Amino acid sequence: MEYYLANGESGLVFLPKFREYGMAVRDGGSSIIVIDFCPWCGSKLPGSLRKEWFERIDELGIDEAKDTIPAELLSDEWYSK
Known about the structure:
Elements: H1 2-7, E1 12-15, E2 20-24, E3 32-34, H2 50-59, H3 77-80
Antiparallel strand pairs: 1-2, 2-3
């Protein structure tokens, strides 16, 4: 799976900020369809942390539209510690 993430041609993407795997929607935008299982072996992938990410943003009082989001929240650093 790492090979397909690295080469970019498969459409498989990983969003470290949310710990989400997905298939890119190739319509010129940045949308993905989140997947829960590896398309090749069927293994369960780690669950998304999107809800927890937004909860953390709220806890910190950050307004995404106005405030600068700290670098650690733009990567997997916030949940890897």
